[in-house]
Amino acid sequence: MKYLTIDTTTKVTALGLGEEGRLVAEGFLHTTKTHSERLIPMLDQLLGAAAWKLRDIDFIGVVRGPGSFTGIRIGIASAQGLSEVLNVPLIGVLSLDALAWAGYGRSEAIVPILDARKNEWYTAGYYWDGSSQRPGCRVQPHAIEPQRWLEECARLDCPVLFVGDAVSRYKELISEKLGERAVLLPDYLALPRGAFAVQEVWKRWREEVQGESVEPYYLRLSEAEVTWAKKEEARLKNNG
């Protein structure tokens, strides 16, 4: 089975081509261009380099959040469009689950952290399950203030591996709170990668209902939704 993965949940555009769980090719762009500008040209280049045609793809995997609201929508819309055109199934995975693959084979607690803005992170807690050769989840995805989450991580009795786009921005705070027990990967290992999504999508493909309906995974309301809710609350109060 050949498949394509799309991850636009952060500022990184990460694409992957996989076959039976094996990474065939991946694309990684972290530039000032938007996802909509990067995605299709990168896909064309990957397919050409792998000597694949679009019709060779048996299914598509997309990372559906949490992350950037705009990025999530672009990724899902692109994946849905390709799925319909090619008439192939679509699989959705979570960004934090995919990032946990950065901890492949490691003994540390695996903690993905994504910058959710408003002084919050999207995060979860994982460990490497050697028996099943995949990440296991100990703490479900949630949004939390960095200080509070780091205090919880500091209570763990083992080193903590941090991955995700918040690592570079908050590395001083992380080191301050956890000291030598904090393991900080460089960007080229910590940011979303096509390789991570290829592994997580294949795991889901083998375990989940195939061809599921893929919806965005938000851990909180978008700014537009918050603004609308406040206006609606004020309107109802004035009318009441």
TrEMBL record:
Pfam families: TsaD. InterPro entries: ATPase_NBD, Gcp-like_dom, T6A_TsaB. CDD domains: ASKHA_NBD_TsaB (cd24032). GO terms for biological process: tRNA threonylcarbamoyladenosine modification. Residues 32-228 form the Gcp-like domain. NCBIfam families: T6A_YeaZ (TIGR03725). This is Gcp-like domain-containing protein. It comes from Desulfitobacterium metallireducens DSM 15288.
